[in-house]
Amino acid sequence: MRYLMTARNTETTPAPDEKLFVEMAAFVEEMTAAGVLLATGGLAQEGVRLVSRGDELTVTDGPFAETKEAVVGFALVEVDSKEQAIELARRFRRIVGDGESLVQQIFGP
């Protein structure tokens, strides 16, 4: 089962420091060695929003006013269960501290 784990920027998101980078690198290395990490990365606050309504398509360049709601990073994992994905997300949150993450199962091949 594949899951997309995303992290959002919040008012309580601490600034990264050297300790965070070291702990995160070890966590990423562990997940890679275990064969569960398929991809990971950070996302720029800038982006493009596309909204469609009928035949109308609106394109808006970012950054957007509500940057606290923006997804700032992601990990794509392949695990045996939802519980395993949640445990990985718990470990991630323990490393990065206060904030918000979302875990969603990916359907399809």
TrEMBL record:
This is YCII-related domain-containing protein. Belongs to the YciI family. PANTHER family: BLL7171 PROTEIN-RELATED. Residues 1-92 form the YCII-related domain. Pfam families: YCII. InterPro entries: Dimeric_a/b-barrel (IPR011008), YCII (IPR005545). It comes from the Bacteria.
